[in-house]
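Review session, final week

We close the course with one last complete record, chosen because it touches almost every idea we covered. It is BRO1 domain-containing protein, a protein from Rotaria socialis with 212 residues. Go through it on your own first, then we will talk.
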Amino acid sequence: MFVKHLLFQSKTEYHAGKQAQADRKYGLAVVRFTRAKEYADQAVSKCATVAFAPTLRANQDEINKSVDAARKDNDFVYHERLPDSKLIETILAQPIAKSLPVTFPITPDFRDLFASLVPIALNNALASFNSKRAEIMNIEINRLREATNVLNAFLASLNLPAAIEDRGGREIPPSVIEKANQIKRQGGINTLEKMFNELPTSLTRNKEILDE
């Protein structure tokens, strides 16, 4: 863990040196690369895991090349004064992800799978209740249907409800008048005759469709 910590510190200083070069702060870049080299050298010296050594060596070689190149450029080209290593800004840890507030439910079509979860005994009792209720409802509905049939038969024996509209032959019952008016609104006798005359043609067409 400590060796990895040194490795990450060296990489942090290395990338900070690259950024300093991009910002044309060549003296600061030399200091950053130098600190990266120190961390990289410590990581190599303190590593006791053989499998981890190649990664540390590769990191060390990359940083050494950058240190040499940065020093050479500054000594021969830029001649910037090197800032004090103790006074340069410390690179602090940065969050790599931003936390977002969590709302519930997360999606509009969310369905809680445990909302309808009940004990097996309760589930069996509910099924038994529904079955018993359906049985009672069917019995009552059959009784109502039987009573309706008996009532209709009794009314038919009394010639009801037709007898209510019986005017003794002196007047036309209102229901008949209403039905006559409805026929008139739909075309009257002409429409009826037309429909009647079209029956043979429709019959022939129906036979053709059935034969086909």
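Two points worth writing down before the exam:
The domain at 1-77 is CATH 1.20.58 (Methane Monooxygenase Hydroxylase; Chain G, domain 1).
The chain has a mean pLDDT of 90.
Good luck, everyone.
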